[in-house]
């Protein structure tokens, strides 16, 4: 972003956004912080006036006894009040800042999570969008509060500088000739440095993801065993150190430039102020100024140089924070790619699905994953999808759940176009078991209740019924604390085997009162015996629901009412197991190949 008219307008827009957010978070805290900053800004001028007045009165009244004491006393009281205020005001500012930061953090984090929940799956699968999310998550509340703090410091320091300059001009107007030539170039220097710092951090985002990835590989229980066995740790640590070293070297360049620029500003202003001080001393010798004037000029110029430096530094830092805040604003301005209709269907769900000449291509892909797919799944029908990896099976079921929209054609649910249906309504009537199902760090009871959390959280009887139907009630009761056992190793006390976690996912899916159940490889982690036991009760679980089953295990597919064979994004065969075997087509070939592989594994 350049310091151009458009760039400056962008900065102001971001600043207004941040101030509006903070104001709406807590008006009393914002006003309290502003008042404390404003009062803090006049303290240095008050101190200077106190010093000047006290010295001048003391010189005039020294040795006059009670009369002199009466003349000095108002200045002593004024100084005492200033000292108390100067001691307490920073504590008040810290209190307001900490309270406001907590509230802003809560509000911004909530905004990010709520907005992320509205975005489609494709957004999170795009690496460029991942970078946008990561930039938005880089301490956004801290950025907003720091913007306020730096703005507050800049305004406070500016007020202090103006008040000090007003006093110094009264003593020696020549001081004005020093300020503009030194302060304005230093302001632009600091701004360019802040902009460079922001850009360095902006382009580090993908590299920071790599550093986090290396740390995760070297410390995660899921990867540490293989890392040790392969002896990869030295290589990964070297990769990590290479990136961190790049960051350090880039920061050193900025730190050195900051030191050089700050030192030059300090030397130039110090020399100029000292030369003017000499002029003030000479004028005092001539009787044009008082001893108090010399005292305040020496102290005030020293403080003014520091105040100017702090004003410029804080102002440039505040502008840098607005650049970081723009990352958050850009993310919050992303519109969901899947529009949702506000019109809720009146009639109850039957679970009927239709595909009408559907074509779908993943973002960035050159070939469509689904090409002209048309099919009709009747209410309550059990349909199986079979085909090699990449045939389009999982993509097809994701379109049913409207995780994506087709680029051509139409998907209908109970006769209605999915694009004209509220997403919440659709998802309430679909239950999913995904290949990469989630292993929730929660109790066994909650792991099942999450399937329909609005109805089942806290309802132990409903959870136990779902577990019994899925055949895992005995498994759960055998856990250390039964249904109250905390599962997972991140926070919990007990972990499950892969097949047990999968059974939990199946129970979670069937706990939902949905008209459509989609099972994507629901038995991939189960043994043959466990798979047999699950599918002995499968028809009871699926009774009255439209069920779509994706599986590579042909023993699973035989129970379906209809089997759809997919190849290269198209449905090439359809029928029952018996019909497809009699056709001697693609299905029969895949089935016999599967049987041979199974027999070989059993023989071994």
Shape designation: elongated
Spatial arrangement of strands, main beta sheet: 6-7-8-3-9-10
Which homologous superfamily in CATH is the superfamily of the largest domain?
ABC transporter type 1, transmembrane domain
Total E-strand runs: 10
The percentage helix is: 55-70%
Sheet having the most strands: 6 strands, mixed
Structural class: alpha/beta
Number of helical elements: 23
CATH class of the largest domain: Mainly Alpha
Q: Number of domains in the coordinates?
A: 3
- State mean pLDDT (0 to 100 scale): 81
The value of Rg in angstroms is: 36 Å
The CATH architecture of the largest domain can be given as Up-down Bundle
Distance between the termini: 66 Å
| Proportion of beta-strand residues | 5-15%
Q: How does the SSE layout of this entry go?
A:
Layout: H1 5-25, H2 27-61, H3 66-118, H4 121-125, H5 127-136, H6 140-171, H7 176-203, H8 205-219, H9 224-230, H10 233-285, H11 291-332, E1 353-360, E2 370-377, E3 382-386, H12 393-400, E4 408-413, E5 416-417, H13 423-428, E6 430-433, H14 444-449, H15 453-456, H16 460-470, H17 473-477, H18 498-510, E7 516-520, H19 528-536, H20 538-542, E8 546-550, H21 554-557, E9 562-567, E10 570-575, H22 577-583, H23 586-603
Descriptive report:
- The chain has 604 residues and is α/β, with parallel strands linked by helices.
- It folds into three domains: 16-332, ABC transporter transmembrane region fold; 349-429 and 515-604, Rossmann fold (3-Layer(aba) Sandwich), CATH 3.40.50.300; 440-513, P-loop containing nucleotide triphosphate hydrolases (Rossmann fold, 3-Layer(aba) Sandwich), CATH 3.40.50.300.
- The protein is 66% helix and 9% strand.
- The strands form two sheets. Strands 6-7-8-3-9-10 form a six-stranded mixed beta sheet, sandwiched between helices.
